Amino acid sequence: MRTQILNPLLRSSIGFDRFDRLFDAATRADHPSRSYPPYNIEKTGENDYRITMAVAGFTLEDLDVTQRETLLVVSGKPRGEGQESAFLHRGIAGRGFERRFELTDTIKVVGANLELGLLHVDLVREIPESQRPRKIDISAGGYSEVKKAA
């Protein structure tokens, strides 16, 4: 495994504490046990996103979706786990899982829906007024007005 040195990048940065954690998580994501269950992330609108996870065999009671500040945790633990059955072939994975997604401060989870073995988690980006672009008028005098960008 290749070690990355980020000190030169972070010397002149403020507020990028999570970058190091994100980078570590990205390099660990290649392990096969971390690829279950498969998922998609799609942009469904200008500020709307959806995470879709293939969770065949899981029921509503088996799944948990939790947002803690900037961390979204989706986990599943099948109720039948630990019970031995006489499978002739077992192609549908039934093991428990925990999948973590790092979110920005402006992303909020607005809902989750289980449909036909797919768990859909809907997200929206809510940009606070203080972070929206502002139009600064330029004047010839010593005072300028601040207006919202259209």
Outline the structure in words.
- It is a single chain.
- By secondary structure, the protein is mainly beta.
- It has two domains: 1-30, no CATH class; 38-81 and 89-127, Immunoglobulin-like (Sandwich), CATH 2.60.40.790.
- The chain is 11% helix and 35% strand.
- The protein has two helices and nine strands; from the N terminus they run H-H-E-E-E-E-E-E-E-E-E.
- The chain has helices at residues 7-10, 17-28, and strands spanning 39-43, 48-54, 63-68, 71-76, 97-102, 107-115, 118-125, 134-136, 146-148.
- The strands form three sheets. It has a four-stranded antiparallel sheet, with no helix packed on it.
- Strand 6 and strand 7 form a beta hairpin.
- The longest helix has 12 residues, at 17-28.
- The model has no long low-confidence stretch (mean pLDDT 78).
Which helices and strands appear, and what pairs or packs with what?
Blueprint: H1 7-10, H2 17-28, E1 39-43, E2 48-54, E3 63-68, E4 71-76, E5 97-102, E6 107-115, E7 118-125, E8 134-136, E9 146-148
Antiparallel strand pairs: 1-2, 2-7, 3-4, 4-5, 6-7, 8-9
